[in-house]
């Protein structure tokens, strides 16, 4: 496939993990500068992230959009080891050079605490606690898209994750002005500290990874990191 000055190869892959495979889609331009592992949010899947993956591939980077367990084509149900899917994929691509983790929502939190060389969280779920209203809306709008035990909540997973330790030279956050209230509040705290956090005006949570402004911010930052 050709786009602008690049020829981009598309490949469906399975990365071998501990007794199972992590399904993903890889987009590879000619002479890639590095790799970005793209991680969806709760109730999402790799197919939803292909627009973001495509744009980053146009910028000269190999991209790998994965399905987390319990989502899409992943063979395993959602469980407390879900972070391993991202970390296994990052470790695989580190064999070819430096890796950036880019995730949305739950995937944004995962990316910011990952073992990647560089980290980008888009509307990341970084709050220590989420209000009951947010939990109820998430259950109503996203639970049906996830294969999981009925007694396991995504907020159980979030509560057990380590908090984000923000390295301003290797990390970045992007969020929408109309994002989930807890996300807006926590992102503003980082922003007030002078950290690399950017708000996109009039953007809601589910659209923040689809916005052209998001793509351009990511491109600028990644070109700096891989210069």
Structure explained in plain terms:
The protein has 7 helices and 10 strands. The strands form 2 sheets. An 8-stranded mixed beta sheet has the order 3-4-6-5-7-8-9-10, sandwiched between helices. The protein has a single domain (2-225), classed as 3-Layer(aba) Sandwich (Rossmann fold), CATH 3.40.50. The longest helix is centred in the C-terminal third of the chain and has 14 residues, at 212-225. The chain has helices at 50-58, 83-94, 106-112, 132-142, 154-160, 181-192, 212-225, and strands spanning 2-3, 6-7, 9-16, 21-28, 35-39, 62-66, 99-104, 118-122, 171-178, 197-204. The mean pLDDT is 95. With 227 residues, the chain is of the alpha/beta class.
